[in-house]
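RETRY 2/3 - previous attempt timed out on the joint model. Re-submitting the same 222-residue input unchanged.
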Amino acid sequence: KAGVTQTPRYLIKTRGQQVTLSCSPISGHRSVSWYQQTPGQGLQFLFEYFSETQRNKGNFPGRFSGRQFSNSRSEMNVSTLELGDSALYLCASSRGTTYGYTFGSGTRLTVV
Amino acid sequence: ELKVEQNPLFLSMQEGKNYTIYCNYSTTSDRLYWYRQDPGKSLESLFVLLSNGAVKQEGRLMASLDTKARLSTLHITAAVHDLSATYFCAVDTGDDKIIFGKGTRLHILP
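RETRY 2/3 succeeded.
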């Protein structure tokens, strides 16, 4: 059974650029969540999507956005990158909170 | 907003010893998750605890949930070096997100 797939695994971007990260959930999982992990702030919730609808959003600026497609795949976009956006971005999929969340391997973004 | 506190944040222990990691949270929830993270890796699901009094065990790890006390514990029995990792608890807020604790970095000395 395929797990949660995130692409790319690593990215290096320059300040001011924008970036798009992709997440393919486990087949049958309709909920996709995104988290940012940094040494200083830990794991912080970005947003959650279910059936193409954003159901919840964390306390991040509007530069962070996302979407979900009809096949449950999700993308997140960060515009006007800042040095502080350097982090590990993790995607998780779920078929319901009773079953918990399965995380992908993450995308490590470095902004220089 | 829901706050999740783990303690200790760092733990260095000898192989063969027992220890407990504590996870306290600030508002009502009856769903709590434990994850393991190895350096440079993603999060591996360990336990899903769904109700008051839930107890789950896997190998040398046992997790429990007391929703009335808003407390979960992760107990390590006879620690071995392979259990060295960072352990996170995460609490379901009930509105489609989970909030993580800061993690407990566990280092087991051979």
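The radius of gyration of chain A is 13 Å. Closing ticket.
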